[in-house]
Amino acid sequence: MACAVAPWDALRAQGSTAAGRATADSGARSAADGAGSRAVGDGTGPIDAVGLSGRPISLARVDVDELGANLRGQLILPEDAPYDDARRLWNGAFDRHPALIARCVGAADVIEAVNFARAAGVLTAVRGGGHSVSGQSVCDGGLVIDLSPMRGIRVDPARLTAQAQPGVRLGELDRECQAFKLATTLGTASDTGIAGLTLGGGMGRLARKFGYTCDNLLAVDIVTADGKLLRADASENPDLYWAVRGGGGNFGVVTQFEYRLHQFGPEVMAGTILFPFSDARRVVKAAMELNASAPDDLYLNPIFSRFPDGRYLGLEVCYYGPPAEGRRLLAPLKKAGKVVADDVDIRTYLEIQSSYDPVVPSRVAYYFKSGFLRKVTPAMVDEIVAAYEHAPPSLLGVPLIHLGGAAGRVKPDATAFWNRDAEHDLSVWASWEDASQNEKIIGEVRAFWSKLEHLTKGYYINTDTPDDERRLRETYGGNYERLVRIKTKYDPTNLFRLNANIKPRA
Ligand code: FAD
Q: pTM of the full predicted structure?
């Protein structure tokens, strides 16, 4: 991809300066053309930065100071105390050093930051909850538009809607909604941001019942590359509304999301059934048979997992119908292998929604791959199990995330999220603590993934790294050309390029 800073290249370049990583930027317009460059940190001279195309530019201090003065939030520079914390993401594999971080507290700040970015031609990352798996919400030498202080939520129980700002985390929105026994589909780790999740699609424990998060998105307020704040919904700017439901952060900076809510909870039947890895083939085949005709009320994820005492096959289960019916559905699975643990029980939805949090602590290094599976045949299960037998030790888990149901019945061209016929998302999640191992472990995970990728078509843009144009096109599928048209209309210079990038027409 022509992406200015390929995530894993930048990762390898840790330790070098922003200017050292880039070459001269002929394309990017500098706010301080001709000014002599001084090192960042002396508080007076121009600031070395990276332009849109990845080459060095310098930003005039007067322009940067003006941006800082115009923000209601804080402009954080490398010499400022909060910088080191503000530049870090959940994924500790990324140790990037932006030139400036604009902490926005409202839409007016976002407009200022976007106008600055466009005028300066500076590489720009957009950060909501900071849980980008591929590290694209921070960039070396660029501007980070950081929305993390924007945490407002308003639930309207009468209209069954919720409005939430882009710094909100899943657990916060779930909690506000559950106070009224309401919910919308969100992801499975409570600290993840709603912003990236919603724009990329949003899979979760309720997706089979209520559709993906993007299917429950009623409207957004969005600042486009020209610095205008637009509302996008079914009647106002409908092309933009269509594109932000699965097209990721390509089209602007969302400053408010509005969701459809559903009556749900507070209790569900949920938990995990654990089997020895030796029974994985039979158990996963039985699970795939059940999933092929499962009711929307069943969410059943087989997960290959490694614990300190060895490998296991877990079945993560949620069932939203009568518990007796849930137990009847699960009975054949329990006979497919030797159950070594079973904690499926009646629990609160909020408890389930934070149950995976301890497994994914922040600032450890992670690397994920993802690919959509259509019908999962017994032969495919054999292939996945055989590959997992030789999985690298860094693999935290390999889930087959249960999709379909209500999310699968939405027409592929009804929103930008194309792969509606996917029945599962095959994911590979690796984590490790020692950053010096980044390259080695990523290489091992890629080698592992290369054995399975041929089973998949398209991938989930929120849990993979967009490093391959062919896979990106499979992901946007028949929606690709329409997305290019909308991108060209709203972001003709590709200001918002640190994402699963759709390039505007020249
Ligand atoms: P950020 O890092 O803040 O942003 C990610 C990207 O989103 C940015 O690079 C930008 O392109 C875009 N973006 C963010 N905010 C805005 C905005 N306001 N306007 C425009 N663009 C914006 N996904 C699921 O669907 N289901 C899951 O169950 C799930 N589980 C996960 C568990 C963990 C532990 C993690 C780390 C991720 C998981 N994901 C899941 C993936 C998750 O959806 C993405 O990581 C998502 O991008 C996180 O959103 P964020 O706002 O925290 O990310």
A: 0.92
